[in-house]
Amino acid sequence: xxxxxxxxxxxxxxxxxxxxxxxxxxxxxxxxxxxxxxxxxxxxxxxxxxxxxxxxxxxxxxxxxxxxxxxxxxxxxxxxxxxxxxxxxxxxxxxxxxxxxxxxxxxxxxxxxxxxxxxxxxxxxxxxxxxxxxxxxxxxxxxxxxxxxxxxxxxxxxxxxxxxxxxxxxxxxxxxxxxxxxxxxxxxxxxxxxxxxxxxxxxxxxxxxxxxxxxxxxxxxx
Length: 222
Description:
Pfam families: Cytochrom_B561. This protein is mainly alpha-helical.
C-alpha cells in the first residue's frame, strides 16, 4: 500500500530525529572513548587526541545541532539564545583545537620529529586555520552593517555553507587520526571500523541539516 504524503513526511521527520539523537550520543561518546584510550596526563601527547576529539566531535557538532528543528537541545529557546550558545561552543572548539595543535607541535619538537609531514598533520593544520577563519567570518553575522553590499540572508547562507566545509574538514582530520600508529595500536578489528563510523554519522546528519535549511530558504523566497 502506498504511503500518503503526510505519512512520508512524518516518517522522514522521525528518521531525522532518530539520526540526530544518534549524533548527540556519538558526539559525546567518541571523545569519552578517546579519553579512555589516551589517559590524559599520562604524557604530553595524551592531551592532543582528547582536545581534538572534544573540538571537532563534541563541541562543533553540538554547536551545529543547536539549529536543528528536530534534535536541538535548545528547541524551546529563542534564536538569539541559540546563536549565543553556538558562538560559545564554536569558540571553545577553536580554543581546544589551537591548544591541541600547540601541544602536538611542541611534543614533536621535544622528540625531534618533523612537523606536518603526514596527511593527518596537514589536514589538521588546515582545519584549525579554517576554523579560525570561520569564527572570524561569523563576526559579520553579528555586525552585518560591515558588509553593506551583502544581505543578511546571503551572509547566513555563506556562513552555513563554509561552516559545513570546516566541519567536514574536522571529521576528515579525525578519521585520518584514526589511521595513525597510535590509534591503530590501541583499536583494532571491528572496534576500529565502528570508530571510523562516528565522524561519518555526524557529518551525514549535519549535511542533511544544512541542505534542508538551504532548501527552506529557497522555498521561502518564492
